[in-house]
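I trust your eye. Have a critical look at both lines of this record:
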Amino acid sequence: MKTKSKKHIFWIIIGIVLLNSIGMSVVLPLLPFIVGKYLPSEHIVVGMSALMSVFAACTFFAAPIFGSLSDRYGRKNILILSLLGSVIGYVLFGIGGALWILFLGRIIDGLTAGNISILFAYISDTTEPKERAKWFGYIGSAMGIGKLGGPALGGLLGGISLSLPFFVTGALIFLSGLATYFLLPESLAREKRIQHLSLNSFNVFSHFKDIFSLKQIKLLLVLGILFYAGLGVFQFNFTIFLKDIYKWGPVFIGTMLTLVGICEIFSRAVLLPWLLKRCNEKSIGITGLIGFGIGLALILLSIFIPSVFIIALGVIFIISGEGLFDPTYNAKLSQSVDESQQGKLQGVNQSLQAANNMLIPLGAAAIYFYSPAILYATATFIVLVAVFIYAKYIPKTKHNQNSNE
């Protein structure tokens, strides 16, 4: 592809991600009220947790399979199928009528999940290795913009009708599917696809075995597991932490989450591209991990020295560190296999994150119940282990060595 044509395609991908992110975050403020229509108030939290766990479990099993299907049949076809599954899931949520219909919507959405991993594979197919971290960063920034605007839109639409935001979400994702069908060319040439699928291709654990048998990828995935575990503690616990420790209400917590969104957009869309011109990806990744660990340590410190400034500084370090590490990590991961295995690799990576979304909230809740300080000390230690592994055992990317040393 010509450079101008590629950039045009990448911005279409960013637009698709933005629509998806807005669509998904539109419904977040309404979930407790939707679930509350079918469960008594004391069971709403349990119902919401069950819905999220069902989705994560389905994603865990489906994402690697969808990734392999994209290696065989092309990214575009499988991406459209994944988006249509999300449309059906959100429409069912909007229709409602019974709790089992909500679960059916989450199951369908989870079983067809994989659009982010396929988009990552698409970018890996169509970019030089040195460009990937930048575009992965832009994808994350687009998701951050969607997370900022989506809840506000959801609140406005929910004031009209609780079902309306879910139908709007389905419409936005359907638009993403139309954009994919009409505007995106196929990125994986037929000669680069795997030639056949076996029954093993539909066994998620065989995909894990294949990917983890590659030594360097195994170490990278362990690094990612450690990072996403630390991130999961922050994502699933932080609002509860602010409510319990600082006695904040929705307004103050919402303001802090706005800071999260701003830092995410800035770190990925501005800071990361600037650093990529001056430093190698490994240095940026380690810097991000260190910043992330400092942020968690500051949250820990704020338990003993109550201070809004320390909390805000901790959030800035955490989100900025995530914004530097996550895109460079995904770029490094994508460079570890050729085009014919990108879908499988990205699917396994998404599956691991789904497992993280199932297990980390449970573990974090148990530790938090015993001691918030121990929880954040544990998360900080996990990130320090990740820093050690990255610094000692993960080599620099070759193109960065050539260009930056």
